[in-house]
Sequence to fold (357 residues):
Amino acid sequence: MSLRTSVARLLRKQTGSSVQLQRRPAHSVALVGAPFSRGQKRNGVDRGPAAIRNAGLVEKLSGLGCQVYDFGDLSFTQVPNDEIYNNIIKYPRSVGSANQVLADTVHGALVAGHSCVTLGGDHSLALGSISGHARQYPHLAVIWVDAHADINTPLTSMSGNLHGQPVSFLLRELQDKVPLLPGFSWLKPCLSRSDIVYIGLRDVDPAEHYILKNYDIQYFSMRDIDRFGIQKVMERTFEHLLSRQQRPIHLSVDIDAFDPALAPATGTPVKGGLTYREGMYISEEVHNTGLLSVMDIVEVNPLLGASQEEVSATVNLAVDVVATCFGQTREGAHIVFEELPSPSSPDESDSEEQVRI
Ligand SMILES: [Mn+2]
Fold:
């Protein structure tokens, strides 16, 4: 029996009347599954949304007092003849078209007054998620939690995988370096270089490092987390993004930001990642701003765990990140108590004043 249930029973017994549980003002949260994998080469990341749902995300969010509107999984139409672009970029039309659908969905959810959680899928989905977010809130700020910077341009990418490139399409300052890909004509850059902060970087390509440095983009690598500690990193992140104005936050979490020991079931693991506690602290701090508007949780690939335990660990971590962003705490919370029952309270009182719920 949960604590809340037992307390409610106790109170009911004491007052002899039924008691309405008090709830905090609810977040209304839209869940959007985006089972998309064409931004990278490994099979299985399209099974991320189902795995995360099966691990009880909806129940957890509801238990935190959120009203959950599950939009289900988007279905993406196959793009025929999606040839490689420029001898390297893979599936541009598929990525472009899926993200157009996602952008419309995220935008619609925000117009309806919800916060939005995008369940990936690979990280190319940030193209649609952030574009749809910016359509409603053009002044948004992005916190990108990832082992990788995902800021290659189609001309610097060595793999041709679009999940390593979304940020380059979104930044206004990079548009003279980014060719128009087939399937991307709907996409307009919506971020400036000062609107994004990276946390957790530890595998950055030379061209990406050049971009981060020369465009003066704020980032905190794993080394920076070691130097300053996660508390200082979050303080500086918010100072950078929010000191001039309060604005909606887009949190884009690649599960590979975490150490592979915690999140092994992902396509591009890199050792030396975030600890569980650092990840929860980031999520708690984002929640505490009260400004979280859209979040992505991406790159969970249930086919890549070496065992069922590895898959479960990765999926449960993803659920914890999302739940913590919407109010789950490590210190506990009270949504029922306004005052503790004291031994002197009469056992059989009908007085509503005795117990204020
Ligand atoms: Mn990523």
The pocket of manganese (II) ion is lined by residues 123, 146, 148, 150, 254 (CB under 6 Å). The beta strands are 28-34, 67-73, 115-120, 141-145, 196-201, 218-221, 249-254, 292-298. The chain has eleven helices and eight strands. Residues 92-111 form the longest helix (20 residues).
